[in-house]
Amino acid sequence: MIIIEYMRQAYLTSFLDEDVRRRTKYLIDTHDVISERCQVLSELGLWSFAPVTAENERNALSVADAIIAIQSHDARKFQALLPTSEVLVAMHPVQARYVSLPCEMDDSNIALGFLGSTNEPNVEAIKDLIAAIYPAVRARTKRRVTLLVAGQVCDAFRKKYAREYAARPEGVEFLGFLTDPEEFYRRTDIVVNPVSCGSGLKIKCVEGLARARPVVTTPIGAEGLEIAIGHGLFVSPTVEHFAQHVLQLIDDPNLLRRSSSQAYDFAEEHLSANAVFRSLEEWINCNCGDSPVLQVASSSH
After folding, report:
1. Based on the structure, what is the number of domains in the chain?
2. Are residues 85 and 117 in the same domain?
3. DSSP symbol at 88
4. How does pLDDT run across 23-47, given as a tens digit for each residue?
5. E-only strand ranges, 30-187
6. H helix runs in 151-252, sequence order
7. DSSP code, position 138
8. Judgement on whether residues 129 and 260 belong to the same structural domain of the protein
9. How many CB atoms sit inside 10 A of residue 257's CB?
């Protein structure tokens, strides 16, 4: 059995001996619906790579005996793209770890936090946070609120929006790349992710829940995590709703603590390796037995 990371690597199967190809089971781990991501980002002027069409994606995935989707929305799209293919769901696994809220030790400040990579949707999310959401929250609460931005998104935002970076409101702190992400969670009370486009599973939401942090996000950010709504995850379709959810958590300490506990409990039950890989393990046991597993990873891994 061969597990191929990303549909772009599927062509590698053509280099195998014909007899090996015939006797081998192939799974493609997709991570997202890349043709959809290309289309959405291109329409927003945010895509600068060679586009992948739905036909390109269908042809690449057709070599697989099973397709691994990272969340249920993607699974339905792959099933529509290849109706006769078997599609499995295997989310991003995390180890739940309860990290106490900073405000429990010092209630003079509430910290909102965003941790992200250089992806364009992350850069645009920071722009929305700084321009609209964070000022709206600060203006409507008596508590001191800060915004922590961490990860490589900091440099990406500074390069693209130098003026906004220089004129950022008081209380916004860019932490940059962190060798230990746990530092970010030790300083953050509420994880915020106002992403407005993208596909796949939003790992920052998954990891926020796993660190016992209430997560406020958009419908796009919550895709595949809908069962966490009411268990530490808050979904906001507009900037106004987003600010309201954040304010509810800030101004109600009991809600904040309860949501923190619910987030941890949800991650422990639904996001462990045993939980997210159950269907994949069942498929492998049923179709491959004790056959060796080869993983073909991208060069960026």
Report:
1. 2
2. no
3. E
4. 888 999 999 999 988 888 888 887 6
5. 66-69, 86-89, 109-115, 144-150, 172-176
6. 153-160, 162-166, 182-187, 203-210, 239-251
7. H
8. yes
9. 16
